[in-house]
Specification:
Helices cover 42% and strands 22% of the residues. It is an alpha/beta fold and 248 residues long. The strands form two sheets. Strands 3-8-7-4-5-6 form a six-stranded mixed β-sheet, with helices on both faces. It is elongated, with a radius of gyration of 19 Å.
Amino acid sequence: MSILVTRPHPDNEATADNLRARGHVVLLAPVLKFEPVAFHDESEANYSAIIVTSANAIRAVAPQLQDLGLLELPLFAVGEHTATAARDAGFAEVIIAGGDSAALRDRVVQSARDKVLKKKSTLLYLAGADLSRDLGGELGAEGFNVVTQTTYRMAPVKILPRDVCEGFAAHGIEAVLHYSRRSARAFLDAARDEGVEISALAIPQCCLSETVASVLRDAGASQVLVAAKPDESALFDTLERALRTRLA
């Protein structure tokens, strides 16, 4: 029996390695494909800090960071995974939030209260093309000037790998891991197109957040579990709980 990981490449490889270390057999079905977007900063703003909600935003602009003079700025990362990508890219000052956009917003606001940032600072938001919430607008309401630059997009992958379709048909997949609302939607669309939607939704769907979980519930999945915190360790704990329940 296998665990299906829908996370995009290259992050899915690290997830697969972690799951295998826990004794699981893993199948990969990256349902979104990373595509960098050309970065042209024409705002001429004097940035005080950078905010990032995905490691992909950093990967997309990594070759330009030194030339753009951004590495000297403090960077607010949504969580530890994104923070690691920022450090690997050369950022020395990385502030980590609690794992989602709301926590990142609160972390930035608290930094202003603590006088780490000036209240009306200009922030550079390195973002994806599809945003789950208006983080720039929320911080703007708190007095910040946020310049949002789209650095990447995640394109849906229309098909599932053949071994994944065969796994669903043979009831050989125990659970599915979902990391984002968009990837959950893409997974559902691909499963429907492949004719395996019923089998795919009949098993536990382990989700990184409630926002992700709502997509699966709306599609008719009956076994939807949500991680206690929006991080992979908590998601793995949720997976183990789901598997114990199935064996009980």
